[in-house]
Each structure stands twice: as structure tokens, then as C-alpha cells.
Design a protein that fits this description.
Elements lengths: L2 E4 L5 H12 L3 E6 L3 H11 L5 E3 L5 H13 L5 E4 L14 H11 L1 H17 L2 E8 L10 H21 L4 E8 L12 H8 L12 H10 L8 E4 L7
Parallel strand pairs: 1-2, 1-4, 2-3, 4-5, 5-6, 6-7
Helix pairs in contact: 1-8, 3-5, 4-6
Bound molecules: NADP nicotinamide-adenine-dinucleotide phosphate (NAP).
NADP nicotinamide-adenine-dinucleotide phosphate (NAP) binds next to α1 and β5.
């Protein structure tokens, strides 16, 4: 049983994995930026008892308050950096300011949380950092240069963390989701979704709940570190 802090827990994929992690016996601390009431109601209906902290992870003081709250709620063993946003813009329209705004959410939110979590995990002599990337970081489609860059950065960051804390009982890995049937997938226009589906050998979008099993695997795998696990129905292979 692990204490898991999941960011972006109001989102579609997180809601699919929370019941799985709960059934596997883990306890969870959750963050959302704006969906506290909806998440509370979801947890009540699902019979899951997990406290929620509202934080904008682009704001340093929010993240400091989040980790004070984590300490008050018993600490953590696992950090899942799941919060993120989709982004679409042709590369010639994407300037540095827009890229920086995107990185503040998709990359620096993970840096803010990981840099607060790692001293706690080092003191415990055990822990897991799990970043969330996308198949798009490996197989970009038109207009995804910003999103792909922000997710690629998370993968490199996890590999670097893995080296720094390998002798402290801590692993750092990334799960690169393929197109999962949840959350931001529904922001993609229907016609484009049909086209994307033709590029997935499995022939369907992924069941988001299975990500819960992938997280559990990483929790129980102390010798797996610095890796990117691809969960994408065969759409892209290393
Ligand atoms: N769905 C897919 O097919 C897919 C594929 C590959 C990768 N991913 C990745 O999987 C993760 C979850 O995606 P999803 O599909 O579940 O998307 P989603 O439903 O849009 O959820 C995203 C979550 O991130 C949170 N968030 C966004 N900006 C934030 C900020 N500034 N501070 C704090 N939290 C913030 C949102 O907060 P609120 O709770 O306030 O809305 C929400 O909980 C993302 O990192 C995404 O890039 C998804």
C-alpha cells in the first residue's frame, strides 16, 4: 500500500485510474485546479475516501501550500505528475512566449512538485516519481511541436532524476500514454479522431483505467528506473 499524490486528479484519465488504485489498496492525495466540487461528488459516488487540495501548479506559493497539506495528511510515497494541457499550433505560429506558457503547465508544474517531493522521499529512503508523457512526444502530428516538446522534456527530466536518486531507493519513470478514451481526447474533432484511430494497430483508443495498473507496476518495480513505458496500442514502438 502506497500513499500516492496525483496532480490533475479532476481530469478524465485520473478519474478512470482512481478506482483502480483504490481497489489495489493504495491511498491517494489529489489535486485539482478548478474541479473540486465535481471531484468530491465523483469520489463520493465511487466510495473513495481521498482528500483534495485545490492548487494552480504554475503558482509556486500554491505548490508550497500543497506540500504543507501533504505533510499534514501523512506524507507521500509516490508522486504522479499527471496535470497537463493539450496544445495545438503550427510551429511557425508558436513563439517563445506561448511555448513558455505551455511549459509552465506541462513541464514546470512537475518540476515544482518533484523538487518538493524528492527531499521527503530521500529522507524516507524510498519513493516513486512518475511523469506523464504522450505518444505525441514520439510520433507528433501536425500542430503538436509545443506539446511534444513539453512532454519530451518530462521524459528527459525523469531520466535525470533516476540517476540522481538511484541509490536512495527512489525510482523515476515516465508513462507515455497513447490516445486514451478520456479527458482531453474529447477536445479533438471527431473527424480527426477517426483518422487517428486508423494509425493505432489495436484499432481502438485505450481504456484509461489500465493506466492505474501501469502505475501499480511501477510502484512495485524497484529495479525499473529512468524508463518511458509506452501504453499506446502499438501506435508507436521504441
Ligand atoms: N487523454 C489522452 O488521450 C492523453 C494522451 C496522452 C497524454 N495525456 C496526458 O495525460 C494527462 C491527463 O490528461 P487528461 O486526458 O485526463 O486531461 P484533462 O481531463 O484535461 O485533465 C487535465 C488535468 O490537469 C489539470 N491542470 C491543467 N492545468 C493545470 C494547472 N495550471 N494547475 C493545476 N492543474 C492543472 C486539470 O485541472 P482541473 O482539474 O482544474 O481541470 C485537470 O485535472 C495530461 O498530462 C495529458 O497531457 C492524455
Amino acid at each position: 500500500m502506497s500513499r500516492i499524490l496525483i496532480t490533475g486528479a479532476g481530469g478524465g484519465i485520473a478519474r478512470a485510474i482512481l478506482p483502480v488504485l483504490h481497489d489495489l489498496g493504495h491511498s491517494m492525495l489529489l489535486t485539482t485546479r478548478s474541479r473540486t466540487a465535481a471531484l468530491e461528488s465523483f469520489l463520493k459516488d465511487a466510495g473513495i475516501d481521498a482528500p483534495i487540495f485545490q492548487a494552480d501548479l504554475t503558482v509556486e506559493s500554491d505548490v508550497e501550500a500543497l506540500f504543507e497539506w501533504v505533510a499534514e495528511n501523512g506524507g507521500l510515497d509516490v508522486l504522479v505528475n499527471n496535470a497537463g494541457i493539450a496544445h495545438a499550433a503550427a510551429a511557425w505560429k508558436l513563439d517563445a512566449a506561448e511555448m513558455e506558457r505551455l511549459f509552465q503547465i506541462n513541464f514546470f508544474s512537475a518540476v515544482r512538485c518533484s523538487s518538493k517531493a524528492l527531499p521527503l522521499l530521500r529522507a524516507q529512503g524510498t519513493g516513486r516519481i512518475i511523469n506523464v508523457s504522450s505518444v505525441v512526444a514520439h510520433k507528433p502530428s501536425f500542430g503538436t511541436s509545443g506539446y511534444a516538446a513539453s512532454k519530451s522534456a518530462l521524459e528527459g527530466y525523469a531520466r535525470g532524476i533516476a540517476i540522481d536518486v538511484a541509490n536512495k531507493g527512489i525510482t523515476a519513470n515516465t508513462i507515455a500514454y497513447g490516445y486514451m478514451e478520456a479527458g482531453m481526447l474529447y477536445d479533438v474533432p471527431e473527424a480527426m479522431l477517426e483518422q487517428i484511430k486508423t494509425t493505432i494497430p489495436k484499432g481502438s483508443f485505450g481504456d484509461a483505467s489500465q493506466i492505474g495498473r501501469t502505475i501499480d507496476y511501477l510502484i512495485n518495480s524497484p529495479f525499473t528506473t529512468g524508463q518511458t513505458l509506452h501504453v499506446n496500442g502499438g501506435q508507436w514502438m521504441p
